[in-house]
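Quick one, tokens below. Sequence please?
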């Protein structure tokens, strides 16, 4: 499955927008590396990360995967790794395929075939 097939399989416009926000933020931090090189000490970096975190929480809801991404963004040089995109991938990965596993009702286990 290609990357575009995965992106197209996201039915929710909020999930697609979250992917675009995360990829744009990571691209801005990679391309504008000299502006964001100071990590947590850079006001531009802090502002961008705060806006991205709040936007992703608004679009996807609260998820624990956003905490390590936010913490990693405070470390100088970690802006070169797409942490926001990885967090959005982790949050939405289970939602890419709507097929749910069959949940059997409680009861005795079926006998083993011999």
């Amino acid at each position: 499955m290609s990357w575009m097939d995965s992106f197209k399989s996201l039915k929710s416009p909020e999930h697609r927008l979250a992917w675009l926000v995360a990829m744009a933020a990571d691209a801005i931090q990679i391309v504008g590396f000299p502006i964001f090189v100071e990590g947590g000490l850079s006001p531009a970096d802090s502002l961008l990360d705060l806006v991205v975190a709040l936007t992703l929480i608004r679009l996807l809801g609260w998820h624990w995967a956003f905490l390590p991404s936010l913490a990693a963004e405070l470390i100088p040089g970690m802006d070169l790794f797409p942490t926001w995109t990885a967090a959005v991938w982790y949050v939405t990965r289970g939602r890419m395929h709507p097929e749910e596993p069959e949940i059997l009702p409680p009861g005795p286990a079926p006998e083993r075939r011999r």
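The helical segments are 3-8, 13-31, 33-36, 43-60, 66-73, 83-92. The chain has a mean pLDDT of 79.
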